[in-house]
Amino acid sequence: MRGANFSYILAIVIAAVILAMMQYQYWYGEYGHANLAEVKSQLAEQTRLNQEQSYKNSILLADVKDLKSGLSAIEEHARLDLGLIKRGETFVQLSNAPITYSRQPLPEVQADVEAVDALPEPAVTDQAQ
Which is nearest to 64 in space by CA: 45, 77, 50, 54? Predict the structure, then answer.
């Protein structure tokens, strides 16, 4: 009977060791629970990128359909990209640069500023001997 108790204890110890190893693998292993948050964030980022690319693809598909179906899309592209102007049309270009004028009078410029005609030539020394 003593040998049977030892074999039961040994089986329990081996089962406990295997269970501990499996728990360690689950919590801290390469594909374990600790890595789950990182994988979820990568999945969310990839899903966002896929949706963004899908949106861009749908815009391009609509553009291709417009180009195949009629001349209005071709004319629009020619106007925007190539600067198409038809006969009889007037081209007007508006600037969105900021207005930089002032109603203040210009400051007086000093008239006694001396002009410099020429700078003196630098002295050339012969260092090759």
Answer: 77
